[in-house]
Automatic annotation (TrEMBL):
Keyword field contains Protease: yes
Native source species: Glonium stellatum
Protein name: Peptidase C15, pyroglutamyl peptidase I-like protein
GO term, biological process aspect, one: proteolysis
Keyword Nucleus found: no
Length: 265
């Protein structure tokens, strides 16, 4: 079956047409010997540049993918993400980071990320990002930042979009204590410094997708998520992040201590 965005679909009438929404997408490079191809970049690098408006999706979507995978290194994220968010043109309405959760068979949309806790797992350069470094870089930011979108609404819309597929998609509260959580917090921190309540950033974890069939399905699942985010943003905006304690006194009960990728056996 061809991907849904290639099908001939009914077009909305001109009077119902809306301005396009711009979505900036990133994916990561390889970092696990057992999984030399990172599915997050396989998906991101093959996304269509346009999701056209339809009767059921009146908002057209322009997708801009960062030109290369983000290196799985703390310094690389810090070197790339803040300038990217400041300089990309047109300015994105939505930022979608995609990362690999190799030990899973399902997709998750992540609600938030932590400021600290990235000192447990070395990156591809053998470096960690200590709590001291995090507190120095983000001294007045909350310990937890959450997306400005409504995760439950996004998830429900996403499920509806892919109801014809046999795919497991789930909500998740925490992007983990490695590069996925780190890039998520880094992006949200950039927006938080401009407006504490406007965080149009969200994170998608994808499983390993070793075959063309699974990759094609993963691309369709991702396009469906983008449609869901756009629709949710139209309804609720991107200023719905929880009012985190600005002093950083956030209860972290239940946080996973090991990133999903490093529970792989």
């Amino acid at each position: 079956m061809p991907p849904s965005w290639t099908k001939t679909v009914p077009q909305p009438s001109p009077e119902k047409s809306k301005n396009p929404v711009t979505v900036l997408v990133t994916g990561f490079g390889p970092f696990l010997d057992k999984f030399p191809i990172n599915s997050s970049w396989s998906i991101a690098s093959t996304l269509p540049s346009i999701l056209p408006a339809t009767e059921s999706h009146p908002v057209p979507v322009r997708i801009i993918v960062h030109h290369e995978p983000i290196r799985v290194a703390y310094n690389s994220v810090l070197d790339v993400i803040p300038p990217l968010l400041s300089n990309v043109c047109p300015k994105p309405d939505i930022v979608l980071h995609i990362g690999l959760a190799a030990g899973r068979t399902f997709y998750t949309v992540e609600e938030g990320a932590h400021r600290i806790g990235y000192d447990a797992i070395p990156d591809v350069d053998g470096h960690q990002f200590t709590n001291e470094q995090a507190n120095k870089r983000w001294p007045n930011l909350p310990l937890v930042l959450k997306t400005g979108f409504k995760p439950e609404d996004v998830w429900q819309r996403w499920r509806k979009e892919i109801s014809h597929l046999s795919v497991d998609v789930r909500p998740s509260e925490d992007a983990g204590n490695f590069m996925c959580g780190f890039i998520y917090y880094t992006s949200m921190a950039e927006y938080f410094k401009l407006d504490p309540y406007e965080r149009p950033v969200i994170f998608l974890h994808v499983p390993d997708l070793p075959t063309k069939e699974k990759l094609d399905q993963g691309r369709e699942v991702t396009c469906a998520l983008i449609r869901a985010i756009v629709a949710s943003k139209e309804r609720y905006g991107a200023g719905n992040g929880a009012e985190e304690n600005l002093n950083g006194e956030v209860v972290q009960e239940g946080r996973q201590e090991t990133d999903a990728n490093f529970s792989v056996t």
